[in-house]
Write a structure and sequence with these properties.
- It contains one helix and six strands.
- The chain has a single domain, classed as Arylsulfatase, C-terminal domain (2-Layer Sandwich), CATH 3.30.1120.
- The longest helix is centred in the C-terminal third of the chain and has 40 residues.
- It starts with a strand and ends with a helix.
- It is of the alpha+beta class.
Length: 107
């Protein structure tokens, strides 16, 4: 099994430990949506999609069945999350540089 694509949508909600939502495409043929990216006490981790049970608990809808696959998911998702942050920062740097050029032209 190969992870062929990871999409991350960052979420910035004040007071929330949830930092984003991810979708993972497997072998270009099966996708898992709504994987939550959570800020824990020891860093980021993922929580698989789940639903609330009638008793008030939660049950995973889809999840890895061994630690190796869970680690593969977590590493790919967190890497994409970190790259998404870097891309946004790069865009801000590019915009700031463009504003500086405009200011220089005005002088």
């Amino acid at each position: 099994m190969e992870i062929t694509s990871v999409n991350v949508r960052k979420i910035e909600k004040e007071g929330s430990r949830m930092k984003g939502i991810a979708s993972v495409l497997l072998d270009d043929s099966f996708v898992v949506h709504d994987i939550r990216i959570i800020e824990g006490d020891n860093g980021l981790f993922i929580a698989m999609p789940s639903r609330k049970t009638p008793t008030g608990g939660y049950r995973d809808i889809a999840h890895p069945i061994n630690p190796e696959v869970r680690s593969m998911f977590e590493e790919a998702i967190i890497k994409e999350y970190e790259n998404t942050e870097d891309e946004e920062e790069a865009e801000e740097d590019t915009e700031a540089a463009g504003e500086e050029e405009v200011e220089e032209e005005d002088e």
